[in-house]
Amino acid sequence: AENAANGTAVGITAASTDVDAGTTLTYGISGEVAANGVVTKVGTYGTLAVTVASGAYTFTPNAVAINALAANTSETFTLSVSDGTATTTATLTLNLTGVNDTPTLAAIAVLTGATEDTAYEISYAALAAAADEADVDSSGLSFRIEAVSTGTLEK
């Protein structure tokens, strides 16, 4: 869980004991109400879901919020456990590491407008408009031409 892949839900089970024999423990998130045996809370960087009967919990990241991180941060939730008579709480802290995700580029449409035997200048704007480039961390991308399928390329 500590090194979960970017955007992947992380699941762990909370461990609790009660000195009173035969008690049934129920788990939750402070201030939240269970629905269908699960308590959920939406945080800034994702959603925590706790199974009331087992204490199993899953943090599902909000990829948009995490990708926008400029620095490392943390998200905290207050978990609770009850034996029906007494309730205690503990803080769950999730440390989030902001990383520079790799930009994507799947295809570039054919550039049009060139005339045979005449130099054709490829501007950044024309290249960006023909490409499907994306970077979740930034809007500033640059291109490097690595190969030309037909014709020649001059700098």
How many alpha or pi helices?
2
- How widely separated are the two ends? 48 Å
The stretches of 5 or more residues where confidence is low (pLDDT under 50) are none
Helix content: under 10%
Nearest-integer average pLDDT? 83
How would you sum up this structure in a few lines?
The chain contains two helices and seven strands; from the N terminus they run βββββαββα.
Task: Describe this structure as you would to a colleague.
The chain has 155 residues and is mostly beta strands. 8% of the residues lie in helices and 29% in strands. It has helices at residues 63-67, 124-130; strands spanning 10-13, 26-29, 38-42, 46-51, 56-61, 73-82, 87-96. A four-stranded antiparallel β-sheet has the order 1-5-4-3. Strand 3 and strand 4 form a beta hairpin. 9% of the residues are buried. The mean pLDDT is 83.
What distinguishing features does this structure have?
155 residues; 3-stranded antiparallel beta sheet; 2 helices; mainly beta; 4-stranded antiparallel beta sheet; 7 strands
Write the layout of secondary structure elements.
Blueprint lengths: L9 E4 L12 E4 L8 E5 L3 E6 L4 E6 L1 H5 L5 E10 L4 E10 L27 H7 L25
Antiparallel strand pairs: 1-5, 2-6, 3-4, 4-5, 6-7
